[in-house]
Amino acid sequence: MPQSMPSAPVLLTAAVKYLEEELLPTLTGYHRFQTRVTANVLNIVRRELELRETQSAAEHERLRALVGHDSDTESLSRELSVKAAILVTRVCRPGVGIRQVYICFL
Question: Domain of 85?
Answer without folding.
Answer: 71-106
